[in-house]
Amino acid sequence: MLSEKPRFIELMAINGEPMLVNLASVRSVSAINLAGAEMGVIVFDKDHEVVVGSTVAQVIKAIAGPPIMMGD
Predict the structure, then answer these.
(1) Which among 1, 18, 44, 52 counts the fewest CB atoms within 10 Å?
(2) How many CB atoms lie under 10 A from the CB of residue 17?
(3) Are 66 and 8 in contact (CB under 8 A)?
(4) 0.70 exceeded by the pTM?
């Protein structure tokens, strides 16, 4: 049975701080090269995306791993 509670993964923000991302909201992941460093781009929908400090490989690994369950 699937839980209706949000499931989160922990990624690294572009400033190096940890951040939580709602796994159900992620639609795609791509890469961008910023000043010679590969950064991941998380796409939520056609109008919303965010650059993260995690690489695409790190994002895929976080998605494949166990989610961080929030709430009671």
Answers:
(1) 1
(2) 8
(3) no
(4) yes
Domain that holds residue 62: 7-69
| Encoded tokens for 12 | 């690294």
Strand partners, 15: none
How high is the mean pLDDT in each 10-residue block of the chain (72 residues)?
71 92 91 91 93 92 82 62
- Residue 65 CA: distances (Å) to CA of 19, 48, 57: 16, 24, 12
**Whole-angstrom distance, CA of residue 4 vs CA of residue 28:** 21
Domain count across the chain: 1
In a domain, 23, yes or no: yes
